[in-house]
Specification:
- With 476 residues, the protein is an alpha+beta fold.
- The protein is built from 17 helices and 19 strands.
- It has four domains: 92 residues, Uridine Diphospho-n-acetylenolpyruvylglucosamine Reductase, domain 2 (2-Layer Sandwich); 119 residues, Uridine Diphospho-n-acetylenolpyruvylglucosamine Reductase, domain 3, CATH 3.30.465.10; 116 residues, Alpha-Beta Plaits (2-Layer Sandwich), CATH 3.30.70.2190; 87 residues, Alpha-Beta Plaits.
- Helix 13 packs antiparallel against helix 15.
- The structure holds (2R)-2-hydroxypentanedioic acid and zinc ion.
Length: 476
């Protein structure tokens, strides 16, 4: 760790000389939004937010910070669920925002690659791909604000992992500013390149602790020509699993999303999100959103969806279902799922467990973890939801109605430990897609200790020997 002090006036002057006045925010009112995370779990402090306008500027900023031993916190859309982009409270860290690195550098429909800078939002990258007749198959609830640099730094997962994998699986090349200010240009767009250690994958998922991603080459897929979406009412996760296996048996390759939601979680969405409407006659204990998609025109997906659902209704696996008949209806069904985080935030304080277990174990996990939490805290409200098709459940708990938010949040370690004990029983992961950030480094020795953590620490020491990159995140 560097021997840090609050950044000096002369460092700030040097930074201003590199990025200009509009690239440097020092006024507390201007920097405040960058110092707090989306969940409002952490409130840090900083002397400056630097907003470089090019990779060269960003590299020079890092070089100056390294030379003065000033730690830096890379920040994209600031949508981390684990405090991955907040600075320390003592004001010693400078925030480097990638927001102004927002150019689409290249779109090649023949190679099916998109080269974008780190500050391009995921939504803008999806649109650039779609304009060229391709699909960037990564979709997360925060895609309107999340930026590609952050999305890759945390190896985001999202709704389509069941079909296309995580962010990591879409990266062909990267440009990274290393902790001493060196620029590594690894922006290759090769499908085969077997030349030593795969460095780009070191930076994907490192959460900005090894360097700052400034641009990336993303691998695209053909755009779907037919999409079919349904919202199904089911009486529990077991029925949801049976439904999933039926779709898999029918045509596994067409499943692009299979999402689970609880009745309580859905009721929060209907209560707090304007325009949210349940397209079913009655509320249900659980819901499944299934999306099928194919690049083949007239592939009969709508019929296939209807056929599987009709049989499931007949067999009592599905209680009721609504199939989207237009793009607007499809968007309305997706909104019910995507607004889950926002609705939970409006309902009160929540403790999030972003965990994964083998898909086949999801129902047993939900049952046992629910029992453990209800025993620990009577009155707590369970809102499990998420990406059932890949085994990633957001096993969230909403504060008891009459409880104080602060009291509830103070129990977060006890709650997370109780849930993680069940996760461990099913050979799962304590962090499936949100990463480690500032919230979970303390869990690392228990889950990744021994050779694995030691190797991570040696990699960190080799690439960032002074320890200026996003201190206090990921590693304990
Ligand atoms: C989602 O799947 C996000 O919507 C957020 O990963 C999950 O709020 C959460 O816990
Ligand atoms: Zn998620």
């Amino acid at each position: 760790m560097p021997d840090t002090a609050v950044p000096t006036v002369s460092l700030l002057d040097s930074l201003r000389a590199v990025v200009g006045d509009r690239g440097l925010l020092t006024d507390a009112t201007d920097t405040a939004p960058y110092t707090q995370d989306w969940r409002r779990l952490y409130k840090g402090s900083t002397q400056a937010v630097v907003r470089p306008g090019s990779t060269a500027e960003l590299a020079e900023v890092v070089r100056l910070c390294a030379a003065s031993g000033t730690p830096v916190v890379p920040q994209g859309g600031n949508t981390s669920m684990v405090g991955g982009a907040v600075p320390a409270e003592d004001g010693t860290e400078i925030i480097i925002s990638t927001a102004r690195l927002n150019r689409i550098r290249d779109m090649d429909p023949a190679d099916m690659t998109l080269t974008v800078e780190a500050g391009v939002t995921l939504k803008a990258a999806q649109t650039a791909a779609a304009d060229a007749g391709c699909l960037l198959p990564l979709s997360i609830s925060s895609e309107g604000s999340a930026q590609i640099g952050g999305v890759l730094a945390v190896n985001a997962g999202g709704n389509n992992t069941v079909r296309y994998g995580n962010a990591r699986d879409m990266v062909l090349g990267l440009e990274v500013v290393l902790p001493d200010g060196t620029v590594w240009n690894g922006l290759r767009r090769l499908r085969k390149d077997n030349t030593g250690y795969c460095l780009r994958q070191l930076f994907v998922g490192a959460e900005g602790t090894l360097g700052i991603i400034t641009a990336a080459v993303l691998k695209l897929v053909p755009q779907p020509k037919e999409i079919a979406v349904a919202l199904c009412a089911v009486d529990g996760p077991e029925a949801a699993l049976t439904l999933f296996t039926r779709f898999q048996a029918h045509d596994a390759a067409s499943i692009s999303a299979f999402e689970l939601m609880s009745g309580l979680g859905m009721s929060f969405v209907l209560k707090h999100i304007p325009g949210a409407v349940l397209p079913l006659a009655e509320p249900a204990p659980f819901y499944v959103l299934v999306e099928l998609a194919t690049p083949r025109p007239q592939a009969g997906l709508r019929d296939m969806l209807e056929q599987v659902l009709e049989q499931a209704l007949e067999d009592g696996i599905v209680l009721d279902a609504a199939i989207a008949e237009s793009d607007a209806q499809r968007a309305a069904i997706w909104k019910l799922r995507e607004e889950h985080s926002e609705a939970q935030k409006r309902e009160g304080a929540s403790v999030k467990n972003d965990v994964s277990v083998p898909v086949s174990k999801v129902p047993a996990f939900i049952r046992e973890a629910t029992a453990a939490c209800e025993a620990l805290m009577p009155g707590v409200r369970m809102v499990p939801f998420g990406h059932m098709g890949d085994g990633n459940i957001h096993f969230n708990l909403e504060q008891p109605v009459a409880a104080e938010a602060a009291w509830f949040l103070a129990q977060d370690h006890a709650i997370m430990d109780a849930v993680n004990a069940v996760v461990r029983k099913f050979d799962g992961s304590f962090s499936a897609e949100h990463g480690i950030g500032k919230l979970k480094p303390y869990m690392m020795p228990d889950w990744r200790g021994g050779a694995e953590l030691a190797l991570m620490q040696r990699i960190k020491a080799a690439i960032d020997p002074v320890g200026i990159m996003n201190p206090g995140k990921v590693l304990p």
